[in-house]
Structure formats: structure tokens, C-alpha cells
Amino acid sequence: MPVLQPIVTIAELLYKKGISDVVVSPGSRSAPLTLAVARHPHLRTRVMADERSACFVALGMALQSGRTVAVICTSGSAVYNQAPAVAEAFFGQTPLLLLTADRPHEWLHQQDGQTINQVGIFGTHVKRSYDLPADYSHPDAHWFIERTLNEAITLSQLSPAGPVHINVPVREPFYPAADESFMYGPVRIIDVCAAQPTLAPETWHGLLQEWERSERTLIAVGQIPRDPALLAILRKLSEEIGIPIVGEIVGNIPQNDLFITRTDTFLAGIDERTAHSLRPDLLLTIGNSFLTRNLKTFLRQYPAHRHWHIQPAIDRINDSFQSLTTLIPAEPLAFLEKLFADVDYQRFLQGDDDDDTHEYLNLWRTVDRKAARLVEKMLLSEPETLTDWSAVQVVLEHLPENSLLHLANSMPVRYANLCGVSERQQISVSANRGVSGIDGCLSTAVGAALMTDQLVTVLIGDVAFFYDRNALWSAPIPPNLRIILLNNDSGHIFRIIDGPSRQPELETYFETPHGYTARNTAQDAKLTYTVCDSLDVLRSLLPDFFHPGNTAKLLELTTDKLANQNQFMAYKAQIASLHNTTA
């Protein structure tokens, strides 16, 4: 039997269990794993030298495809470099399979290089961690490897999806002999049948009774992938039953004449009387985390009397608004479709389907439209000034229809949420909002672009870009990637939030100005590079920038941090008067 046959079995199991993509970081101890996947006829491999960036690229690939992506790295500190992406995948519920090569355990604490304790290294930030045997002489070792791979890959995909770790101790020799062939022979696949939770009839009737008793029902949508069917049922619930649908850009809730998307603005300056009028009797939430602090603060200070959270599987109680009364194990789309059908039929039987004035919905619409006018007024106050905010507005307006938008954390995602995208554009939005760090935003967008022919635009700030520019190290960069870099030469968010902005150490210890531009980075990565410092020029550049081409493109927008600050402070000053004006 070839020396590497159990490792080759791992590669075959990846393929047979539905994994088609593997991201590899080069190393010696991991060479058997690398060769096994590289020579497999049906596995696509991507090489990324930086393990931290590699794992974020895999994260982006998994986000885009919805399938598990495997990641291979060598032993030692290389494994720890994956930790930020692993944490993001865990809290963002994204399926990854982490294959970490290791020394045999008896060499731990023996002054051998690249040897650390890798068993359980990711702690509670993986769904489960496995440790394979270093020796394969007994048949049980092969049985254990097959069983472990079957279980680990399935577990990564079961709701809630997430990362699973397999530690692989490897003895020398690492490399096959010249006459040694890889045999991707038969492996045992253990299938797990999919099942959907169902609610007992008495439970369903109890929920319908709660619904009927509620005079003010609100649905809030957290971070969730774009789903036209979900948007359609939410529109029906709002149009036909009068339910306010509150959402954000990261929840793929577009701006239209119906959905409530300006909560970060109108809830910031809300008075107590208006807050009580908006307070729901019954709150339904779906999706993962919410972006805007003002929405979260409102729902905590004015909690619903009853709060349902709908999620496919129950592994933890998510009570982020401190008001949860019922956790419902169901797919949100299926639940809402059945809810609408039953409620609509009941209204028909009672003959009141045309009598509802939708008063509660109109209250939310009124404040939302006021907020929209305020934001529009702020952007029109200095129409020719290029600021981060005005640039984001223009970029979002020019995004090609049916394209993908990845929002980096810190200010870009917040500016984008203030601006929104129109329903007409059919934009799919994603962001690393599981942990919400800036450290892998560019790499995640690169990974997403690798998995689609659609245009992928990443909107990113300068600190996040330069922190993660190793995402562009391993060529080729997918030609459908478009990078919009907002370069204000600082950590701009610290000039806007109250705490650090008042400190004399603001610039040195929080903003950390750097003086870098992206020109050399773009040249090294062979990107089409353009720099712009004018709003008029930006408008003229965008059509060609978004046009398909043979290379990825980077558009660097240079803005003044003081102008950015002044605009945002003026906006915050206007919020105070928002609820003192008529609709």
C-alpha cells in the first residue's frame, strides 16, 4: 500500500461528500495533503501563501456558493493565523473544513520546529474538532479516518453551518516516491438524510392566536443572504396585511416604497412619545445579527410584549433584544409563507380583509420617509464635494444590476446602510458581520469573486485594505472583482464616534494616519488602477470601471478626513430635529 494512501483517502472523501474547492497554503508538513488534493482530478485548488488571508478567501468562497470549502495549512503558527477567519465563519454560520497538518504528538515540547499543541486549537469557535491518528497500521485507523471525514463534512453543513477542524498528524516521508501513484479508490460514504422541523398543530394554532391578539406586529430582518422568494412574501405581509418590515442593507432588504430601511437615522433622535407609538406588541425576527446600534437600542429600551425568533435549528437561545418569548425551529421562508396563507384566509373568512387602515405600518413609513428626506438633504447640501459618504452614494447608484456587493466593516458598511440599494438593481449584499472585524474583508471578496461570473464589488476603507492586501498576493485575481477604496488616510470611524473623537491622542493612537496609496499594490497585483478625488470625475469613471474586462480593477478615492467628519457631524445635528417636523 502506498505510504500516503490514508491521506489520499481524505482527498477522495472531500470530493465524494460534495466538496469541490480547496484553498491551500504551502508548507512541508502539509505536503501529503496538498499533493493529494492537487492531483485529484475533480478538486479545484487555490494556493494562498498567507494562511490568514487564505482562510478568509475560503470564507468568501463558501459564502458565495453555500457549500463547504476545505482549507489546508502546515503545522505550527500557521494554524493560528487562520483563527480570525475561523471565528468569523463560526459566528457568521459559514461552512469550512479546516485540515491542519501536525507533528506526531510525541514530539510536542521536544524542541522540534513548527510544533505546537494543535488539538482543539480553535476552542469553542469551531462546531467540533477532530484529531486523526499518526499511524495507519491497524485497520481501525482507516475506518476512523473515513468515519471522521463523513461526520465532519456533514456537520459543517448542518444548520447552523460553521467551521469544523480536523488535525492531521503526519510522519515522514512527506513526499511519494517517483514510482508511487495515487489511487483515488472506493471510499465509504455515510449519507445523512435532510429533515425539516415541523410544528405540532396545537403549537401552530397557539402562534396564530398570539398573532391575532397583536394589534401592532413588526418583522425585523437581520443579516441573511438575498432570496427573491423571501422578499416576495415579506412584501405580501406588508402590502396586504399591513406589517412593517424593518431591515438593513446587510439583510438584503432593498429600498422601495414599502420596506423600512432608515432606522439608523430616525431612531437616533426618537422622542419617547414616538417611540411608544412604534413599539410592537409582537416582534418577529429572522436572520443573524443586526448592524445598526439605534435599532438594537430601540428594541431593548422599548421591548415587544411578545418576541418570536425564527431559525432553522435551535442550538443556542438568541435573545439579543432581551425580550425573546418564543424560539421557533423553522425555515423563515416556509414559516412566513404558511403564516401569510393562514392569516390571509382567516381574514377572508371574517370579511375584514379590506377594512384594515394599516395604521401601524403608516407610522413606521412616516418616520422612515422623514429620515430619507434628511439623508437626501445632507447629500445635496454640498453636491460637488467628494466625501466618503457622497462617494458611497454615487457608487451604489451605479452598481450594475444583478451584481454582488461586499461591504467592508467600519464606516463603509455604515455609509452603505445609510444610502441603501434600490430594489430595481437586484443587488446581493454580503459582509463579514459574524465578528465584524476589518481584518479579512478584501480576502473574503476575492473568494466570492472566484465562485461566480457575476461582477463582485467590494467597498473598503484604507485601513482595512492595507491590512488585508495579501489577498492580492497570490495571482491571478479574478477579473470580475472591482475594488472601491475609500482612502482618507486614517481610521475614519474614530473621528466620528464620541469617545475617541474627544481625546487629544485621537490622531496618533486611534486614527493612525499612514500616507499610503494603493498604486504600487495594484501594480504588483496587475490590477487596472485609477485614482480619483472629484465627485464629477467619479461619475464619469464608473461606467467604464464596472464594464467587464480581462483584469480586476481598483478605483482609489482620496477624501479629506476633516470634510468627512464635518459632513457626518452636520448629519447628526440634523437628526435632533427629525421628529419635530411634520411628515
Please describe what this structure looks like:
The chain has helices at residues 5-16, 31-38, 51-65, 77-80, 83-92, 139-157, 201-213, 228-241, 263-266, 272-278, 293-301, 332-350, 359-381, 388-398, 411-419, 441-450, 462-467, 498-501, 506-511, 519-524, 535-545, 561-575; strands spanning 21-24, 44-47, 69-73, 96-102, 129-131, 163-169, 217-221, 245-247, 282-286, 306-311, 326-329, 404-407, 428-431, 456-461, 481-487, 528-532, 553-558. The protein is globular. The chain folds into three domains: 5-169, Rossmann fold; 201-367, 3-Layer(aba) Sandwich (Rossmann fold); 382-580, 3-Layer(aba) Sandwich (Rossmann fold), CATH 3.40.50. Helix content is 40%, strand content 15%. The protein is α/β, with parallel strands linked by helices and 583 residues long. The mean pLDDT is 93.
Short description:
With 583 residues, the protein is an alpha/beta fold. It has three domains: 5-169, Rossmann fold (3-Layer(aba) Sandwich); 201-367, Rossmann fold (3-Layer(aba) Sandwich); 382-580, Rossmann fold. Helices cover 40% and strands 15% of the residues.
